[in-house]
Design brief:
Radius of gyration: 16 Å
Strand order of the largest sheet: 5-4-3-2-1-9-8-7-6
CATH topology: TIM Barrel
Shape: globular
Distance between the termini: 36 Å
Number of helices: 11
Structural class: alpha/beta
Number of domains: 1
CATH class: Alpha Beta
Largest sheet: 9 strands, parallel
CATH architecture: Alpha-Beta Barrel
Strand content: 15-25%
CATH superfamily: Aldolase class I
Number of strands: 9
């Protein structure tokens, strides 16, 4: 069962402005990354549903987060069907993210007051998702659409909350461009977790990068 409802999750996402996106088949590595992000100031974390038995890893890190990262909202990403969404909700997912919009997932999530953030690539898709109760929509892939797409969409639909994922980097220039365009928050993956740093167990690097990115976001919002 979710620890945080939709409103609490959206508040965490909006307050910090960044959601790390991560997958690893080793639950112990995933725990270390999760803890490093938490110590860097992150309060919403997306574990992607990619490898075999990913749900078992997720179950492990949700239990770990309850003990070691009590204010962290735990979400699952890369969800494209309602059955998978229901599985992860039973395992404690606080929010569900997907690369596409599936209205059947929205029904599953809305029933339990779980935030569903679907991937959208047009103004119409964002509009359809909002009609289905998706308060936060994901612009994906961000590097294909760019900040001008976000800015253009926000002009006629200024009430929209948009999370950009794909092509987001922990640099002042990149983050400033997204937030000045009107992004509500961003999702960030490999740039926060370089493979060599994860392999070396350099968790201090991850913590530092998270703190640095959050500082750039706070600066861009001023």
């Amino acid at each position: 069962m979710a620890k945080f409802d939709k409103m609490a999750v959206l508040t965490k996402m909006g307050t910090t402005g960044m959601i790390p996106v991560f997958y690893h088949e080793d639950v112990e590595v995933a725990k270390k990354v999760l803890k490093a992000c938490y110590e860097g100031g992150v309060r919403a974390f997306e574990f992607t549903n990619r490898g075999d038995f990913a749900q078992e890893v997720f179950a492990g890190i949700v239990k770990f987060a309850a003990r070691e990262c009590p204010e962290m909202a735990m979400g699952v990403g890369s969800v494209v069907d309602p059955a998978t969404a229901a599985l992860y909700i039973q395992l404690g997912a606080d929010f569900v993210v997907g690369p596409l919009f599936n209205p059947e997932i929205a029904k599953i999530c809305n029933r339990r007051l779980i935030a569903y953030t679907p991937g959208c690539g047009s103004v119409s898709e964002v509009g359809f998702a909002q009609e289905a109760g998706c308060d936060l929509c994901k612009i994906f892939p961000g590097d294909v659409y760019g900040p001008n797409f976000v800015k253009g969409l926000m002009a006629p639909m200024p009430w929209s909350k948009l999370m950009v994922t794909g092509g987001v980097e922990p640099t002042r220039e990149n983050l400033t461009s997204w937030f000045k365009a009107g992004a509500f928050c961003v999702g960030m993956g490999s740039k926060l977790f370089p493979k060599d740093k994860v392999t070396a167990g350099d968790w201090g690097y991850v913590t530092g990068k998270c703190a640095e990115a959050l500082a750039y976001i706070a600066e861009a919002r001023k």
